[in-house]
Structure formats: structure tokens, C-alpha cells
Write a structure and sequence with these properties.
The complex is a heterodimer. By secondary structure, chain A is α/β, with parallel strands linked by helices. Helices cover 33% and strands 16% of the residues of chain A. Chain A has three domains: 9-92, Phosphorylase Kinase, domain 1 (2-Layer Sandwich), CATH 3.30.200.20; 97-303, Transferase(Phosphotransferase) domain 1 (Transferase(Phosphotransferase), domain 1, Orthogonal Bundle), CATH 1.10.510; 321-459, 3-Layer(aba) Sandwich (Rossmann fold). In chain A, the strands form four sheets. Chain A has a six-stranded antiparallel β-sheet with strand order 1-2-3-4-6-5, covered by helices on one side. In chain A, strands 14-13-12-15-16 form a five-stranded parallel β-sheet, with helices on both faces. Chain A has a three-stranded antiparallel β-sheet with strand order 7-9-10. In chain A, helix 2 runs antiparallel to helix 7 (264-272) and helix 13 (411-421) runs parallel beside helix 15 (444-451). Chain A is globular. The interface between A and B is medium-sized, with 38 and 28 residues.
């Protein structure tokens, strides 16, 4: 791979014009084979004297882009070469301008900044919702398609939450662009989507003021300054900066990720509806924090704990357990349907929860030996099938619904045991038919609602007629 | 599943109510070239003393031993602690000292196993939850909690130690069984979780008179 030049053919791809020579990779247009997409080939700079991060960046890019579903907001990965012999990535050629090309026009009108920023935020959201954090956002990595849509490029430092992080702990010197890097990234945190919000804030700051929020740090010491120093408020550089824009920018640039917008979707929303931005002290700030506050923060910085990364969007990681208790032989179809409707509401509100359907049956009078298809087993299976039938219309994937038949002659106690032992977060159960029953302390419903260590919802269908 | 070959990473018996059926099934796979290694519960069921097992596990092992016939005992006796096949290594616990049943619970144990194993890939059991250890570019070991169903590129220029997780006896409140598929051609590791009829298994365990704790663990998933 040492002597590649226009005209070279690699695995059937014919190289055209060289369009980029960077520190990590060289990029060529491809002139063949003909296909529906214009293509480029990105070849990492490898070999003696090159940085190990180049080859890891190649692997990361391959993993992340390979895992993301096709979208206008990142380049499509078409093919890749063997890492040991011919490493390369063939990707869609994105034709368009980079944010970088427009920086000379800064300070830009606020409305234009909002339009560009919101397009970037929308693209970022598309990446974040797949549990990918870009971690190297900068004006050269943001491209605009002729349609105005943003394409984020260069995923060489990105982190996909579903895959091992090949760059974790590799970084003795913080990896990424030091101008836009979030404070937690400086400390090696690579799993927080709010790091991208910070970088977006940095770019908005630059568009609004013509300056970068922390200059261009040249040493790790200078880079670390952002752990305690706040940027000069944009209004004191460009006085016409509206409060809403300063509010958005400074909130994106908060040192503690928890003080920023919690998701990039919120940034997109704020930028596209300035009138609805809630203004705080940030909006009117005229100067940086005073020197004594700075000194105080500087002392605290050694104790600075980056915010924990938010959980992945995956069901398995954050699953809440919701138990639906259904009486055996519940023949009231209206109540069964009401329970289902209530369960649907819970699912809609929390798309990651797990539903456990539970019923309690009296224990079998006699228990015969193993393998004997006695009536107790038969009944048990029958109840299980009943529960599954009830759950079927919820249309949940198999791993999110479980059905359990508990055997006990004290249904309330059995349910409470189950709820406690399985750390259930929410119980849904049907109201007793007869209202006078509900008042009896001995009622299952009353006992569970009264003593369960979690939220209990009693579901009652509207009376007929 | 699309697997061409199978590997069973030990603890075939000692937790469940069907030890004979399990061993007959796995012996059949072994006859067709499957890799099978010995686990500590298997060793205990053969009468090799292991004071590390707790009281419940010991009671289950005693029960298991009484169920096994000559043929099953002979099969267990024939099982190796480690199987190495080109750049793959299969071991129940640590490749560093397989007979000591060391749990791979952190980077240090994983590093020891990988250094001793000297293969690109190691597949282990013993620890019940799925985990992947891998080397970064500097050679240092890192760890990752796999996402079931997501194929992980696992190129051979790094080293990989996969804890496959257990089929039954979960510790993470998820009753689904664990397995892993390794695609050696495309160098991809995919961890899986698959639900099964836990209720039936629990009923069998209770009916067999095995310690209640064994059944409860399946029911609660911890």
C-alpha cells in the first residue's frame, strides 16, 4: 500500500484524484467501478513513524459506520479492506461545503447560526439515537449537502456503545480536537453524548463571535483550563448577540455535562424555536466568573468528577420491571382489556420496560412424581397459556415479556413476595368486581396496593352503559 | 444458529435435574467433533473433592453423582481441562491454572489467562455473566459488557477473552440462557441471550428434591 496514486487499482476499486492528505489518512476519489454512489477511498497512514491511533481510527470508523443504518447524516460505508494487508475504507463521496468554509463569515446573523446549528443538531441526534458519540466534532467534520442537510464525517474517534471501545485508555494525550473538546473528554471519558453537545456549543460560539471559546490550546495544561474557566460571554464580544443564543451557547458549554442540555434533540428544538428558550442568568451574562470564584473553582478542579455517562438506549441495560397481576380465570373480558390498555400506556411511556405477567393459583392438593402429567402440572400450563394469550396483543418482543404462575393459597402474600424479590418497579392489577370487596382489608388488591414497595396502579374498567 | 462446530465450556451437570440427559446429548455432539471441557461442578460430580463449593451446590452435586451411570462417569472422566485448536482456546475457568478454577472477574485474571493461553481467542465459562476482554493497541487489556445480538468485530491482531455466560443459573435478573457464536472467517463474536422454559426446569428441580436455592436462582435470575 506504499505507492498508491491515481490510477492504482485496489480490490477492484480504481483510484482517481487525491482529494485530501491528512495526518491520519489519505483520501482518493474513485473512478471505478461505476455504481449508484460517487465514492471515495480512505487509506490510513500506516507503517514506521505513523501513529498507532491511525490504524485504530480505521477500525473504529469501520465498526461505527458499518453498524449505523444508512442515513443522510453520515457517509455510507460501502467496503473495507483487510486491516493487516490492505486497510482502506470505501465510502460515499459527500459533495458539499464544510462548516469550516463559512467560518470567515463569522460573526454571522443569529438566525443563520440557529439554522446551521439546528441542522447539525438534527444530524447529531440521528447518530446519538443509535448509541454513537462522535467525539471529534469540528467545523471540518461538518458538511452540508446541497439540500441543507448536515453530514457528519470522520468517525475515527467515535464511540459506539454496543462495541468495545478500541480507543479507551489509549490516550495518554487527550485524543480529538483540542479547540472543541469537552472537559470530560480531556479526562478520558468517551461515552457521553453530551460531549458532542459541548463541541456543538463551541462551534456555535465561533459562528457567533468569530473566536473559539478557549483559543487554541497548545499544551495539556492550557487544554485543562476549561475544567474551571468559563468562556467570555458572546455578548461582550458581539453585543448584538440575542439572549436566547447566548443562553443556548453557554448552556452547551457548561463544564459539568449535567448542566448542559440533556440531549441534542433539545438543542435542535431550542435553536429552531428561540422564542421558547428559557432564559437564565446565562442569557444576560456580560463577563466571566470573578477572580475569586475562579480561584475557588481552580481548587475544586482536582476533585472534578465528570458526570456519569447516561445509560444506553438499550432495553437490557435500564429495563424497569412492570408486573401485571391477573387473577386466574379472570373471565371479565372488559377488565382484561382495561389491564391491557393500562399496560400499553406504561409501555408507551417507557419503551424499555419489561413486562412480567403474573397469576397466583392455589397449590395442588397432591404432588405426584416427576414426569407424571398430573393435573397440577396441567393446570399450571393452562394458566401459563392464558397469561401468554393475554399478553399476545401487546405485541412485544419475546425478551420483554415473561409469564409466571405462582402457587400459593395466599395470593396477596405471594404477589408481594414476587414484587419484592424481583425488585419490581410498578404493579398493575385489576380492581375487584364488587366495590364492597375493595374495602375489605383482606382483599388482594387492597393488600398489594397497601404494602407493595413500589407504585401500584389499580385498573378498573368504566361501568357499562 | 448457523454453527458448524460446537463447544461446551463445562459445568455440564451439577445444577439441573437432567444430568443424564444432558450428558447423553453432549456426548453425541462430542462424537461429531464438538469441543467439551471439564467444569468444577463436573469434577465434583465425579467425586473429585472441591471444598470451595457451597453447601447447596454440594448437595446438588451429591444428588447428581447418584444419578450418573457408568457411561456418564466415563464420559466426564474423559474430558480435558483445556482444548486448544489453532488460535482458539477453550477452558472452563482460567487458562493460567485450569485445575484451580480461578474466576475471571477482572482485568488481572483475564490477562493471566490470555498470557498463559498464548492464543488469539479464549472462550471461558465459570463466571455466569457475559463479558469480553480485549487488548487495545498498546497491548493493555480492556473490558466490555457485550450487547446481546450485536456482532463485534474481533480482528486477530488483538487478543480476545470471551466469557460466554451460563445456560441457566443467571446472575443478572435475566432468566434467558447465554451462548456465543464465533465467526472465524469474518472474525466476529456475537453474544446471545435466549429465553427457554425456565418454569419447567424449576418444577423439575423442585420435584427432584434438589436444594431450593438452585430453583430460586433460576426463578429470580440472581
Amino acid at each position: 500500500m506504499s505507492a498508491v496514486a491515481p490510477g492504482t487499482v485496489i480490490d477492484g476499486f480504481r483510484l482517481g484524484e487525491k482529494i485530501h492528505t491528512g495526518s491520519m489518512a489519505t483520501i482518493f476519489r474513485l473512478t471505478g467501478p461505476d455504481g449508484p454512489l460517487p465514492l471515495i477511498m480512505k487509506i490510513p497512514r500506516l507503517g514506521a513513524g505513523e501513529r498507532a491511533v491511525n490504524v485504530i481510527g480505521f477500525e473504529v470508523c469501520r465498526t461505527v459506520l458499518g453498524a449505523l443504518p444508512q442515513s443522510p447524516h453520515h457517509p455510507t460505508l460501502v467496503a473495507y479492506g483487510d486491516i493487516e494487508t490492505t486497510p482502506y475504507l470505501v465510502m460515499e463521496f459527500v459533495d458539499g461545503e464544510r462548516l469550516n468554509d463559512w467560518l470567515h463569515r463569522a460573526p454571522m446573523p443569529p438566525e443563520e447560526i440557529a439554522r446551521l446549528g439546528s441542522a447539525i443538531a438534527v444530524a447529531l441526534h440521528d447518530v446519538h439515537r443509535h448509541d454513537v458519540v462522535h467525539l471529534d466534532l469540528k467545523p471540518t467534520n461538518v458538511m452540508f449537502r446541497p439540500s441543507g442537510e448536515v453530514v457528519l464525517i470522520d468517525f475515527g474517534l467515535a464511540r459506539h456503545g454496543h462495541y468495545p471501545d478500541l480507543l479507551a485508555e489509549e490516550l495518554r494525550i487527550p485524543l480529538g480536537n483540542w479547540v472543541y473538546m469537552a472537559p470530560e473528554q480531556v479526562l478520558g471519558v468517551r461515552c457521553d453524548p453530551r460531549s458532542d453537545i459541548y463541541a456543538l456549543g463551541g462551534m456555535l460560539y465561533e459562528l457567533a463571535t468569530g473566536r473559539t471559546p478557549f483559543g487554541k490550546p497548545g499544551t495539556v495544561g492550557e487544554l485543562r483550563r476549561r475544567l474551571y474557566r468559563d468562556p467570555i460571554p458572546p455578548r461582550s464580544i458581539v453585543p448584538s448577540t440575542p439572549g436566547w443564543l447566548q443562553e443556548i451557547i453557554l448552556r452547551c458549554l457548561e463544564v459539568d455535562a449535567r448542566q448542559r442540555f440533556s440531549s441534542v434533540e433539545e438543542v435542535a428544538f431550542a435553536l429552531s424555536s428561540p422564542a421558547r428558550v428559557e432564559l437564565t442568568e446565562r442569557a444576560s451574562r456580560r463577563r466571566r466568573a470573578s477572580l475569586w470564584r475562579l480561584a475557588l473553582r481552580r481548587m475544586e478542579v482536582s476533585a472534578f468528577e465528570p458526570a456519569p455517562c447516561p445509560p444506553l438506549s438499550l432495553a437490557a441495560r435500564i429495563a424497569r420491571v412492570v408486573t401485571v397481576a391477573i387473577a386466574p380465570q379472570e373471565s371479565n373480558e372488559r377488565l382484561r382489556e382495561a389491564l391491557r390498555a393500562a399496560t400499553r400506556n406504561v409501555i408507551a411511556a417507557d419503551p424499555h420496560c419489561r413486562i412480567a405477567c403474573v397469576t397466583v393459583v392455589p397449590p395442588a392438593a397432591t404432588l405426584s412424581g416427576v414426569g407424571d402429567e398430573n393435573s397440577a402440572t396441567g393446570r399450571h400450563i393452562h394458566q401459563l397459556i392464558e397469561l401468554r394469550n393475554w399478553a399476545k396483543p401487546l405485541d412485544l418482543p419475546e425478551e420483554r415479556v415473561t409469564c409466571h404462575v405462582l402457587e400459593s393459597d395466599k395470593p396477596a402474600a405471594a404477589l408481594l413476595d414476587y414484587v419484592t424479590m424481583n425488585e419490581v418497579d410498578h404493579v398493575l392489577l385489576g380492581a375487584p368486581k364488587d366495590a364492597s370487596l375493595a374495602r375489605r382489608v383482606t382483599g388482594v388488591c387492597a393488600q398489594v396496593a397497601g404494602t407493595a414497595p413500589c407504585t401500584v396502579t389499580v385498573v378498573r374498567p368504566r361501568p357499562e352503559g | 444458529m448457523g454453527a458448524d462446530r460446537y463447544a461446551f465450556l463445562g459445568d455440564l451437570v451439577g445444577y439441573g435435574a437432567d444430568p443424564v440427559a444432558v450428558l447423553e446429548l453432549i456426548e453425541g455432539y462430542a462424537a461429531n467433533g464438538a469441543v467439551v471441557v471439564l467444569g468444577n461442578h463436573d469434577a465434583a460430580a465425579m467425586g473429585r473433592a472441591d471444598e470451595e463449593l457451597n453447601r447447596n451446590a454440594m448437595a446438588a452435586v451429591d444428588w447428581t453423582r447418584a444419578q450418573l451411570g457408568k457411561r456418564q462417569r466415563a464420559f466426564l472422566e474423559s474430558l480435558p481441562l483445556i482444548v486448544t485448536d489453532d488460535n482458539l482456546l477453550f477452558v472452563h475457568a482460567s487458562a493460567a491454572a485450569p485445575e484451580q478454577w480461578i474466576y475471571i472477574t477482572g482485568l488481572r485474571e483475564a490477562e493471566e489467562s490470555l498470557s498463559a493461553g498464548k492464543t488469539t481467542y479464549i472462550f471461558s465459562g465459570h463466571v455466569h455473566s457475559q463479558k469480553l476482554y480485549y487488548t487495545g493497541a498498546s497491548g493493555r487489556l480492556l473490558e466490555f459488557l457485550p450487547v446481546p445480538g450485536t456482532p463485534i468485530p474481533a480482528a486477530r491482531h488483538r487478543r480476545w477473552l470471551a466469557i460466554v455466560g451460563s445456560a441457566g443459573q443467571p446472575r443478572d435478573r435475566n432468566t434467558a440462557a447465554c451462548y456465543l457464536l464465533f465467526d472465524s472467517e469474518r472474525e466476529r463474536l456475537t453474544f446471545y441471550r435466549v429465553p427457554y422454559d425456565v418454569g419447567a426446569t424449576i418444577r423439575k428441580i423442585r420435584a427432584a428434591g434438589l436444594p431450593e436455592r438452585v430453583a430460586l436462582r433460576l426463578e429470580r435470575g440472581t
